[in-house]
Amino acid sequence: MTIHPRIGHGFDLHRLEPGLPLILAGAALDHDRGCVAHSDGDVVYHAVTDAILGALGEDDIGQLFPDDDDANRNADSSRFVAEAVLKMRGHGYEIGNLDVTIILERPKLSPHKADFRQNLSVLLGCGAERVSVKGKTHEAVDALGENRAIACHVVVMLVPDPQA
Fold this sequence. Notes:
This protein is α+β, with helices and mostly antiparallel strands. It is built from five helices and seven strands; from the N terminus they run ββββαααβαβαβ. The protein has a five-stranded mixed sheet with strand order 4-1-7-5-6. It is globular and about 50 Å long.
């Protein structure tokens, strides 16, 4: 059976509140607010998980890791990505490339982008050259622009794994 490249899109959004940690792509950022979430609220890892699962035609992150399951309370979101990667490999795919866009007013993401790329490439088992991370603001428009929320879009291309 021939398998062909597949594309997936992931999206996540969380409200930001004072006194909570802000974790993005596995990195804790110094900020006065963080994500309200059942898990650690890592919008990057959540969107990456959904992008991979979507490309595979699998259930989404909310179905695999429901927020009413105490096993997911305060969970490290890298666990969600790791499960998606296992499914990806089980289907005979690897990462062709991953494109991440984080929408956040503050803090500035530029100083952290190399860490984000490194964390993602290690977790996904691919070279950092296959991972792109961009930071965008919402220009003071709506909850994102007022620093009351954070969002992330991810597009992934899965390609057949030549070792599968």
